[in-house]
Amino acid sequence: MKICVLPGDGIGVEITAQAVRVLEALGLSFEIEHALLGGCAVDATGDPYPEATQKLAQAADAVLLGAVGGPKWDGLPREQRPERGLLGIRKQLGLFANLRPAVLYPELSNASTLKPEVVSGLDILIVRELTGDIYFGQPRGIELRSIDGVQQRYGYNTMHYDEGEIRRIGRVAFEAARKRGKRLCSVDKMNVLETTQLWRDVMNELAPEYPEVALTHMLVDNCAMQLVRAPKQFDVIVTGNMFGDILSDEASMLTGSIGMLPSASLDANNKGLYEPSHGSAPDIAGKDLANPLATILSAAMMLRYTFALEEAAQRVETAVKKVLAQGYRTSDIYEPGTQKLGTREMGEAVLKNL
Ligand SMILES: NC(=O)c1ccc[n+]([C@@H]2O[C@H](COP(=O)([O-])OP(=O)(O)OC[C@H]3O[C@@H](n4cnc5c(N)ncnc54)[C@H](O)[C@@H]3O)[C@@H](O)[C@H]2O)c1
Ligand SMILES: CC(C)[C@H](C(=O)O)[C@@H](O)C(=O)O
Ligand SMILES: [Mg+2]
Prior knowledge:
By secondary structure, the protein is α/β, with parallel strands linked by helices. It has two domains: about 1-95 and about 265-354, Isopropylmalate Dehydrogenase, CATH 3.40.718.10; about 100-130 and about 160-260, Isopropylmalate Dehydrogenase (3-Layer(aba) Sandwich), CATH 3.40.718. About 40% of the residues lie in helices and about 20% in strands. The strands form three sheets. Strands 2-1-3-12-11-4-5-10-8-9 form a ten-stranded mixed sheet, sandwiched between helices. The chain has a two-stranded antiparallel sheet with strand order 6-7. Helix 6 (about 165-180) crosses helix 7 (about 195-205), helix 8 packs parallel to helix 9 and helix 11 (about 310-325) packs across helix 12 (about 345-350). The mean pLDDT is about 95. 3-isopropylmalic acid binds near residues 69, 83 and 86. This is 3-isopropylmalate dehydrogenase. Keywords: Amino-acid biosynthesis, Branched-chain amino acid biosynthesis, Cytoplasm, Leucine biosynthesis, Magnesium, Manganese, Metal-binding, NAD, Oxidoreductase. Homodimer. Its cofactor is Mn(2+); Mg(2+).
């Protein structure tokens, strides 16, 4: 059972260290190797996804990732940006299915910015397509063009999906809904964008194969509104790469903090990359302030999806629940009457409860 750990940049280093401690404490025979991805890789090699990392990631059964990016690398040419490394590994490993569960632990019902009665009991799964859409579409660029007789800079990207890409993420979402609340909401912008008209058509074509799942459709702007108005109406949401990026950050705040939202990015054979949904949080990096729970919960998803170790996954998730019930909080989810811990102490608290 080979795990490639890519801490990345900023708080990535701090939070993956805690998740690795948790994995090691389980006493399972994991082979864990670390490598560079993102800004740290650019600094060391000039490449955000260097060849040595590619080899390790391809040979591993699963990848645990912290986060990449930060202001230090914002001025670099696009192909050297840390985020290109992340997009590169997702594409290279064929990780098209991104599962982002937004679950509100009862102890955190006051940590959300929404009223407790709106969010209590929340349990949503966002299924985001991860290797297509406008993120990868060609052509793309910024160039000088003569427009209306004036030389000006012109920026462009291309949004596209083929029906095969839509069908395979659709199947992941229908299967997930079948195992949960049996409701699937497909989110698109079919009133404006042809690509997402195709998305809706293909979801409708799949529906008869899953008669026990109730499929509905929603336009993305309405979905963004409904997620804060009445989030519990959702069970599973399936959507494209860009809409999924935005909606999953929005959903994270329903759970109290983006520091609570794990994710799994899977290929067709459950090889996976596991990472928190948040970024490298340059504002709190190196201060022992980051919440490591999203990363620890991502490691639990790794145990479940790649290694089929359901019991071990639940051990980790139960330990996280216990820590919250014991009143331990990092700053992002702190409220009066609870005890504030740093990143490392939070990792230790989870270890003690395993
Ligand atoms: N998967 C990834 O690697 C990933 C995801 C998103 C953003 N990024 C990159 O991260 C950098 C910063 O992006 P951003 O500021 O827009 O988003 P961010 O998610 O890094 O931070 C947004 C806010 O949430 C807070 N936050 C995030 N994670 C937290 C945690 N675990 N505990 C406590 N607070 C936490 C941060 O302090 C910040 O105030 C950018 O370079 C961006 O490209 C990377
Ligand atoms: C850093 C960026 C490339 C990434 C994305 O947009 O997919 C991030 O925001 C995420 O949600 O994982
Ligand atoms: Mg994002």
